[in-house]
Design a protein that fits this description.
Layout: H1 5-9, H2 11-36, H3 40-43, E1 55-57, H4 64-77, E2 85-88, E3 95-97, H5 118-125, E4 129-132, H6 140-154, E5 157-165, E6 180-188, E7 190-195, E8 215-221, E9 226-229, E10 235-238, E11 245-253, H7 257-263, H8 266-271, H9 275-288, H10 299-304, E12 312-315, E13 322-325, E14 330-335, E15 338-343, H11 344-355, H12 361-365, H13 371-383, E16 387-391
Antiparallel strand pairs: 1-9, 2-3, 2-4, 4-5, 5-11, 6-9, 6-11, 7-8, 7-10, 12-16, 13-14, 14-15
The protein binds 2-oxoglutaric acid (AKG).
Length: about 400
């Protein structure tokens, strides 16, 4: 009878250990988010899905100044006529592509008139809202950490969008999002109205865009305020004539049952549902949740030059790792929808990385691992898109 390779190599223990360290990483992420945004996790039903509700904190201890500085410097260097920059028409609430670079000089957020690009100035003066999509990775290590922590906690895809407006701009008008949003007011002020959902777990196009429940809350968000709005809760905004507004919205796309169906292997769908199929589909689904928060890592640079200014790295593993032994000496992992293999030394390296929230390559080297195994693991993690630079060269 063939021997069980896991018994022979102790892989069972390693994979249990990995699962435990991932769980600890999630608890640490919850601790950090709870400190910055007290009560938000509880309101969002992070531990008990389906129990989420609106939460507003007027003075959350979020580092607004650091974020605002990072945003100003991003605006000063970015060409936002890419897919990241849009303007929202105040009449129709529709977003259109920016047709030219937005700014060419550093921006003072409280004085949007200093936007160097005249199209952007004119757009703001016209009551249009400028939306910078998916820009969290340009807003410094704090924003990246928060996105990764939220992704870890909710097993979700998280991205940050910035909204800049002037005067009483209405943005998109009344609408609901098919994901949860966490709004952080950075500069100026904005008035919000929030309504209850028209139905539980609404989905487009099944649920009408205009569907809405009863009025729930209205108020003004000032710098340092945070608001969590669950998926499907309609909201609308209005600015003030005397002051502009800039906020960062983190969209938290938790997986839905539809995502699960999409990921179910054809043979499972064909076979009809049984509880084993369900378990298998859930396993695949958990490991397929994707997250691409990171800018590409120039690994060669970081691996070769670790002494001058060592970069710190982190792993984002929403949904965790799924491990299985392939032979007596190797194990394979499904992470972020892709497989990679690791030797026993590689598995131990992985465990060291998961154990830490962030690490330098020297931290891992000092655990006595062979250099070639470290390079192999880093290479594989980078390939499957879960290795990111937490601080160091290249992070604004
Ligand atoms: O400020 C706006 O124009 C709309 C903002 C919004 O809907 C959001 O941040 O989710």
């Amino acid at each position: 009878m063939p021997s069980d390779p896991r018994r022979a190599t102790g892989f069972d223990l390693l994979s249990e250990e990995l699962e435990r360290t991932f769980w600890e990483a999630r608890c640490r992420a919850e601790g950090r988010v709870d400190t910055l945004l007290p009560g938000i996790l509880e309101a969002s039903g992070a531990q008990e899905p389906g129990t989420n509700r609106l939460a507003v904190r007027h003075q959350a201890p979020v580092p607004v100044a650091a974020l605002t500085r990072a945003l100003g410097s991003y605006l000063g260097r970015a060409d936002l006529s890419t897919e990241r920059g849009k303007v929202v028409d105040p009449e129709t609430g529709r977003a259109a592509q920016l047709d030219s670079p937005l700014v060419t000089a550093p921006l003072h957020l409280s004085r949007p008139s200093r936007l160097a690009n005249h199209h952007a100035r004119a757009a703001l003066a016209d009551g249009q809202t400028i939306v910078l999509n998916d820009c969290h990775d340009s807003l410094g290590p704090w924003a990246v950490r928060l996105c990764v922590d939220l992704a870890t906690i909710y097993s979700a895809f998280v991205q940050g969008n910035v909204y800049i407006s002037k005067g009483d701009s209405p943005g998109f008008g009344s609408h609901w999002d098919d994901h949860d949003v966490l709004v952080l007011q950075l500069d100026g002020r904005k008035y919000w109205e929030v309504y209850g959902p028209a139905e539980f777990s609404p989905l487009r196009p099944e649920t009408l865009g205009s569907a809405s429940g009863d009025f729930v809350w209205s108020g003004v968000l000032e710098p340092g305020a945070a608001m969590y709005i669950p998926r499907g809760w309609p909201h609308r905004v209005s600015g003030f004539s005397d002051v502009g507004s800039t906020h960062l919205t983190l969209s938290i796309r938790r997986p839905t049952a539809i995502d699960l169906l999409d990921l179910m292997p054809a043979e499972v769908c064909g076979a009809g549902p049984t509880s084993d199929d369900w378990t298998q589909a859930m396993t695949i689904w958990r490991s397929s949740l994707t997250i691409s928060l990171q800018r590409p890592v120039d690994l060669n640079r970081h691996l070769v030059d670790t002494s001058a200014s060592p970069s710190t790295f982190g792993l984002s593993l929403p949904g965790g790792l799924i491990a299985e032994a392939t032979s007596e000496a190797r194990m394979r992992f499904r992470v972020n929808g892709a497989w990679f293999e690791a030797s026993e030394a590689g598995v131990q390296i992985l465990e060291e990385m998961v154990r830490r929230d962030s690490f330098t390559l020297d931290d891992i080297r000092q655990t006595g691992c062979p250099d070639n195994a470290l390079v192999d693991v880093v290479d594989s993690l980078d390939r499957v898109g879960v290795f990111y630079v937490a601080t160091g060269a290249g992070v604004g």
